[in-house]
Amino acid sequence: MKKILFLLVLVAGIVFWSMYKKEADSTPKQEIKTEKVTKGSVILKIDCNGRVVSNFDVEIKSKASGEIIEFPFDISDKVKTNDLILKLDPVDEERGLREAQTEVDIVTSQLKQMAEKIKIARQELFILQRNTREQISIDTQKYEDARRKVRDAQKLLPKKVISEDEYQDLLSREAQARSTLSMTDLKQEEFKIKEWQIQNLQYEEEILKKKVIQTEIKLETTKQRLQDTKILATIDGTVTEKFVQKGQIISSGISNVGGGTKILVLSDLSKIFVIASVDESDIGKVSLEQEVIISADAFPNLRFRGKVVQIGAKGINQYNVVTFEVKIEVLGEKKSYLKPEMTANISIVQAQKDDVLLVNSDALMYSYKTKKYTVEIMKAGNREVREVEIGLNNGMVAEVVKGLEEDTEVILQAAKKMPSFDTQRAIRRMGRPR
User: How does pLDDT run across 27-56, given as a tens digit for each residue?
Assistant: First the structure.
């Protein structure tokens, strides 16, 4: 029994050993991958996404309400300042304009008539004053003559030079002259009445003047309403949105509680910008005037240049992820290829070096103990560890400051078993050792 058990174990061992050997023989030996040190450019950049926007947008609405009778523009049409964008049916405004003009003409005519009345009244007052003064002068002279004759008669009467009847006649004439002079003085009261009448006319004239101003303002308002039936472009731009059509009735953006009907949106495309969302961990690396490389899925073979012109002062928190808006101006003649609301891929260049020695980042080994980089090189068929000084490192390639020469073959550490994936990822993200 023991012999049978021994034979079974022996056979099983032989079978397992054969299978293991076969598997070991079939497993290919790990190949050592190498790559040469070359010269080129290394770019350290921040990658993010953004959306294309225009320089600014103007939403066009109408001050007037009515039916659209002209609307010559469509989406993507170019518009110049003061171009007629839209015209409303002006029949109501034209009728109102005629009524307002008639009111102005009537009140203006009444004002002219009032001015003529005042002029005539002043002339009449002047003539009355002049005639009255002349008459007073004549009557005063007559009264003085009558009084003098009475005084002379009083001296002659005792001497019997004149008779009693003659004396009484002189007294009667004196009384009549005094009465006439008193009546003439009473005419001066007519001056005050005439002046009061002129003042009333002047008051009515002032009222008419104000009515003229009122009706002229109404006329100007009506003219403006008529003018508002023609909507002109306020900027040079491109029609990017259109909300109405010819024949549609629209409401005023001023008198309507809801804000009125949107007509179209004019976009100034003389400048093109990209609003990029930069993670809060990277925003400290962004500064004004930084160079930016922009690409869009619509133009996979094109790269657009840009620069940072504005950095958001406040972050945006969405789902506990904080980002900052960075405004980037697109430069170059090809910027017109980009359309508002396109999605753009953004690379904000932190640093760039050209014509430097480059080594594949997978060849680098970093020691946290010595704070230094090393690489393995192939020399005469043997491996040799060499210490290197690294400059810019974007995780793909790294700048060799010291320790390697061009065309030196280095071993890619990704081709053999590495201590830890996290360690390698940390090395790539560090860039420079601190």
Answer: 455 577 888 889 998 888 899 999 999 999
Beta partners for residue 231, in sequence order: 86
Which structural domain, as residue segments, surrounds residue 251?
57-89+231-264
Same domain, 291 and 409: no
CB proximity list for 185: less than 8 A, separation 6 or greater: 136
Domain edge (last residue) among 328, 351, 374: 351
Of 203, 225, 247, the position where a domain reaches its end is: 225
- Return all residues near 21 (Cβ < 8 A) that are at least 6 apart: none
Q: Is residue 276 within 8 Å of 49, Cβ to Cβ?
A: yes
Q: What is the pLDDT of residues 244-275, one digit of tens each?
A: 999 999 888 777 767 789 999 999 999 999 99
Q: Are strands 84-88 and 382-393 parallel, antiparallel or unpaired?
A: unpaired
Query: Which residue do the tokens 């909507």 mark?
Result: 231
Residue 170: give its domain's CATH number.
1.10.287
Question: How many residues would you count in the chain?
Answer: 434
pTM of the shown model: 0.63
- 8 A C-beta contact, residue 372 and residue 412: no
How do residues 283-329 score in pLDDT, each as one tens digit? 998 999 999 999 999 999 999 999 999 999 999 999 999 999 999 99
Percent of the chain with pLDDT over 90: 46
